[in-house]
Task: inverse folding
């Protein structure tokens, strides 16, 4: 019941064109089914094995998004069903996704993860690296993937101005890229703590976990 209420509350705050990914990592299938029964069909997980197990156990009209850091050697386990991969941060990973998608005669949608957060420089690509990937001839040869946008996470901070500045700069970059690459249509930014700011700054897809399912 609570989950249904939470979903309703969040949906009310989302413009129609913003897609809600319900982040269900660590939550059991019964809990996910509550959200499913409330009409939610897009779920996000951050571990491939966990997502595969849930895919096997849950209704097949669920669209599964991989939002976590990718281990290349595990891409093959989700290639037959994953709907969108948010956290792609190298060309090598795109090649592996393409290879595995080809085996299933699929085209897998991907987002390139941008490194925006100042203190977390571990994952993600710089703006320049993203431009290089999008303009490379090698990308055109990958017929079984489609890069449809960018994913970013703001710094882990309470400074709302900083978060806003980061989302804004990402949105500016996204809109510049779109003029050169019109097929880009997705900007995945915003989580439970900052999705309102992200939407203000042009997000088209928010990844919300704890505000729907409670704390983990
Ligand atoms: C866990 C996670 C989320 C959701 O976080 P909440 O704060 O629970 O909404 C969003 N994006 C990524 C990449 C995550 O790992």
Result:
């Amino acid at each position: 019941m609570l989950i249904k209420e939470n979903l309703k509350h969040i949906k009310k705050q989302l413009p129609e064109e913003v897609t809600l990914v319900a982040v269900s990592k660590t939550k059991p299938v019964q809990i996910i089914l509550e959200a499913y029964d409330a009409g939610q069909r897009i779920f996000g997980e951050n571990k491939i094995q966990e997502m595969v197990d849930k895919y096997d156990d849950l209704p097949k009209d669920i669209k599964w998004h991989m939002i976590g850091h990718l281990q290349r050697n595990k891409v093959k386990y989700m290639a037959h069903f994953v709907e969108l991969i948010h956290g792609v941060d190298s060309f090598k990973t795109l090649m592996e996704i393409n290879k595995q998608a080809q085996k299933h005669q699929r085209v897998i949608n991907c987002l390139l993860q941008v490194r925006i957060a100042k203190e977390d420089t571990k994952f993600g690509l710089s703006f320049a690296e993203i431009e290089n990937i999008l303009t490379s001839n090698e990308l055109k040869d990958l017929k079984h993937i489609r890069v449809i946008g960018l994913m970013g996470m703001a710094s882990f901070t309470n400074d709302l101005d900083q978060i806003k500045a980061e989302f804004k700069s990402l949105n500016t970059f996204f809109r510049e890229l779109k003029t050169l690459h019109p097929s880009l249509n997705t900007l995945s930014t915003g989580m439970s703590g900052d999705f309102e700011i992200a939407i203000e700054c042009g997000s088209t897809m928010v990844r919300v976990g704890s505000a729907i399912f409670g704390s983990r």
Observations:
- The longest strand covers residues 145-152.
